[in-house]
Every structure is written in C-alpha cells, then in structure tokens.
Amino acid sequence: MKAAPFEHHEPETVEKAVSLLESLHEPTIIAGGQSLVPMLRFRLARPDTVVDINGIDALDYLEEEDGYLKMGALARHADVEDADVIDEDDYGSFADAAPLIADPQIRNRGTIVGSMAQADPKGDWGSVLIAHDGEVVARGPDGERVIPADELFLLPYDTSLGENELITEARVPTPAAHEGSAYHKLKRKTGDYAMVGVAARLILDDEGRIEDAGIGMTAVDITNARAAEAEAHLEGERPSADLFEKAGELAAEESNPESDEHGDASYKERMVDVLAQRALGDAAERAGAVKRRVTQ
Ligand SMILES: Cc1cc2nc3c(=O)[nH]c(=O)nc-3n(C[C@H](O)[C@H](O)[C@H](O)COP(=O)(O)OP(=O)(O)OC[C@H]3O[C@@H](n4cnc5c(N)ncnc54)[C@H](O)[C@@H]3O)c2cc1C
Fold it and tell me: According to the model, what pLDDT value does residue 2 have?
C-alpha cells in the first residue's frame, strides 16, 4: 500500500518549523521516518501535512555542553555508536543500547528524539533516559520548555507534548566522578524490539556507597517505566550481589508486563529481575566499585 497524499514542508530553521506547526492543519513531524513511514504506508497515519525537519542543520549534533550530553533532534542512533564521548565507562548504557536497536539501516536514519516522541514502550532510549534522569527540550509557539523523560510518556504512543511542539533536544547530565551505567535487553533475535530491557545508572560517593540510582524498564508496562522502589532500596548502600538481588526483585514487582506470543507475564517479570541485576552489576563495575563487591 502507498501512503495517502500529503503536503510536504521542509523548513530550514526551528523557528520556521514551529511556525509551520502552528499554521498548518494537523501537521505531523518526520525525522528519521523509521516509525512514521511504515505507519504512512499502512495508512495507520494519514496526516494532511508533514513537516520534515531533516533540513534543519542546527538540530544535527551530539555533544557534551554545559553539564549535559545533548542530542539534537537529528542525532541518529548510529551517531551514538560513533560518538567519541560515549564508551563503556562514560554513558555505558548508551554504548550498550545503540547497537541493540533494530539493524544498521534503521540506526542510520532513526533518531533518539524521534524514539522519545514515538513513546513506544518497547523503545530503548526511553528507559536509558529515565535511568539517567534525562529530559527533552520542546519548542512551541509559546517558547521553550523542558520535560523530564518520566513526564513525557503518558500512554503507548502518547506524550505530554503539545500539538504544535517540536522536540529540539534530548539530554542527560554528564557523568559524575564515580558513575557507571549499563543496558541489558532480551530479544528473540538480532534486529528485534526488546521483549524486556533494563537500563541502570549508579553514582557512588567517595566511600563507595550508592549516592544515586536510576533504573528504567523497557516493554514491561504501558510506557517506559521507572523502578522507583528498587532505586530507593539501593541508595545509601554499598554495591553487592545481595543488594542487587533485592533490587531486581523490587523492579520485577514494579513492572507490569502483559502476556503475549513471546512469553507470559511471569516470565517477563523474572527477566526484569535478571536483567536488572546484570545491568546494576555492570553499572557498579563501570562506576569503579571493585568487582569483588558485586559478585560476592
Ligand atoms: C523494523 C524496526 C525495528 C525497530 N527496532 C527498534 C528497537 O529495537 N528499539 C528501538 O528503540 N526502536 C526500534 N525501532 C524504532 C526506531 O528506533 C525509530 O527510528 C524510532 O522509534 C523513531 O525515530 P525516527 O527518527 O525514525 O522518528 P519518525 O519515524 O520520523 O517519527 C516517529 C514519531 O515521532 C514524531 N517525531 C519525530 N521527531 C520529532 C520531534 N523532533 N519532535 C516531535 N515529534 C517528533 C513523529 O511525528 C512521529 O510521530 C524499530 C523500527 C523498525 C521499523
């Protein structure tokens, strides 16, 4: 099937894009098109007008600035794989997640911001941003506002973005001195969406205790979700296998997966527990906690 006809606009500035979003009838933004184009082709989306932001060069960046890792709306999944500032030690969860998304063709086009805007509970970036206390910056006719990742997702494919708002950037704080993070994802085969995914981020104090913990979960609730009780259980404690075992249990209890053809809900809950423990173990190791503490 071919997409229904629509008007196509290619603004070259954010200001022009925002003004088009305000003036056009029910416009839809296109970035990488990796979620939108299939929906257009199956006519699940039938917008009158499409605002293509790929010509806005000012949105094409991935950089550390002012205490944040900032990803402009045209930063692609593959840019995360290629970025010099991202490796296992710094932004480990980003380094883990990027190569696990879909296939190279999709990673070359799909954007981090588009994934956040798509609000698919199976999307990987939502969990990573939640674990890092990330946020998105939105521009609309009334100016700019910052939305914490937790508050962006309302329902599957539904966000708190206004109708005429454009997300210009997704960002997370730059790593603290003793910070580590990781992302673990269970999928049936290469290229698949997550059956379950868990992102974990730990900041240790100078004594080696957990000062701050972040855990985001993929595909086990109606949106990407935070495991707040598991996080609270970790804070103030020293990393250990026992501690992570309890945190994994709590995260599993906080998850709310549905049974489907890939597995029943109890299996997915168990996988949240397992993946949370693995992600926390890697995060602790990357934060500089001696491995012995994690594996005892
Ligand atoms: C076969 C397949 C496998 C995939 N596997 C995975 C996977 O394993 N993990 C994963 O996380 N994702 C996966 N994806 C999704 C992929 O990552 C998409 O690239 C991503 O979800 C959307 O990004 P995009 O730039 O392509 O957005 P688009 O498709 O262009 O847009 C998606 C939605 O976001 C809106 N939007 C885009 N940019 C903005 C903006 N700046 N401001 C406001 N709204 C905006 C659009 O209007 C649209 O509603 C897969 C997709 C496919 C087709």
Answer: 86
35 in contact with ligand 1, CB cutoff 6 A: yes
Q: Is the torsion defined by CA of 174, 100, 152, 25 positive or negative?
A: positive
Cβ(33) – ligand 1 distance below 6 Å: yes
Q: Is 286 exposed, middle or buried (0-12, 13-18, 19+ CB in 10 A)?
A: buried
Can you give 10-51 as a three-state secondary structure string? CCCCHHHHHHHHHHCCCEEEECCCCCHHHHHHCCCCCCCEEE
| Pair 211, 245 in one domain | yes
Residue 134 in domain:
yes
**Is 72 close to ligand 1, i.e. is its CB under 6 Å away?**
no
CA of 141 to the centre of ligand 1 (A): 24
In this predicted model, what pLDDT tens digit does every residue of 160-199 receive, in sequence order?
Answer: 999 899 999 999 999 999 999 999 999 999 889 999 999 9
- Which residue's CA is minimally distant from atom 14 of ligand 1? 102
Q: Express each pLDDT in 21-72 by its tens digit.
A: 999 988 999 999 999 999 999 999 999 999 999 999 999 999 999 999 999 9
The reported pTM is: 0.96
What's the total number of domains in the chain? 3
Question: Which atom of ligand 1 sits closest to the CA of residue 120?
Answer: 21
Is residue 75 in contact with ligand 1, taking CB distance under 6 Å? no
CATH number at residue 26: 3.30.43.10
Percent of the residues in the chain that have a pLDDT greater than 70, as a whole number: 97
Q: Is 233 found in the same domain as 162?
A: no
* Spacing, Cα 205 to ligand 1 middle (Å): 37
